[in-house]
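Quick one:
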Amino acid sequence: MIRFDGVVQKFGTKTPFGDNRKTVLDGVDLVVPRGHMLCLLGPSGAGKTTMVNLIMGNEIATAGTVTVMGEVAPYPKARRWIGYMPQDEALYDDISAAENLRFFGAMNGLKGRELEERIDAMLEFGRLTEHRKKLVADYSGGMKRRLSLGVAMIHDPDLLVLDEPTVGLDPDLRLQIWAEFKKLTKAGKTLLVTTHVMDEAERCDEIAMLHRGKIIALAPPRTILADTGAANLDEAFLVLDGTAGTDPAATS
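Output:
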C-alpha cells in the first residue's frame, strides 16, 4: 500500500554558494503491506509529519521515491481510496457537522441513500449525533477531532492516513476508536498512524521509530521490547537512539 525507497527530504534553499538545506528525512526505506497498521513514532521534529505529507502528495521528495498503491503523487487512481486526517482540522466552521460530512462524502463519490447512511454512521461513531446540526464553529476541540476522523473515514477508504488522530480525546473514546481501527485492519484496510502516546503505539502491528530523519527500528512492539531489553517503548527508544544511561547534565 505504501512504499518509501531511499527517500530524502530537505527544506531550505540551495544556492551556487552552498547548500543550507535542512535534512528532515535521510534515506528512508519503508514498506507498509495491505491490511496492516503501522505507527510512526518519534519526538517532534523526527520527520513523522513530513512522511505523512509525502504519502498524501502534499510534498515531493528531494530524492528517492514514494508510492501509494503502486502510484506516485498525485495518485490519479489511488486518491479516491485514501482517507486523510491531518493534525490541524480541515473542516468548514460555518456549516454543521452533517453538512461537512455530506460535502466530503460527495467529493469522494458517495450519493443518495449510501451517503446519508454513512453520515449517520460517522456521527454515531464520533458521538456527535445530538450535535449534527450545530455549526462546527461552536464545537470543542475534541468534537472537531472526532468529526475530522469521520470525514477521513466516510467513504470507507482502503488506506487511512491519520496524523495524531486521538489527541485531546477522552480515554474511553480513544479505546473505542482503537478498537474500530483493529476491526478495519481485520477487514483488509491499511492504517498509518502517528502518535506520541506509547500505549496507542503498542496496539499497532508494527512500529517505525524515527530519530533525526532515520528509521532506527521497524518491527512489532513486542519485538522491539525484546530486542532492546526495555520495559516499555520509552526506554526502548532511548536504547535505540543511543541516549540510554546518558547523564542528562553531560548532554545539556
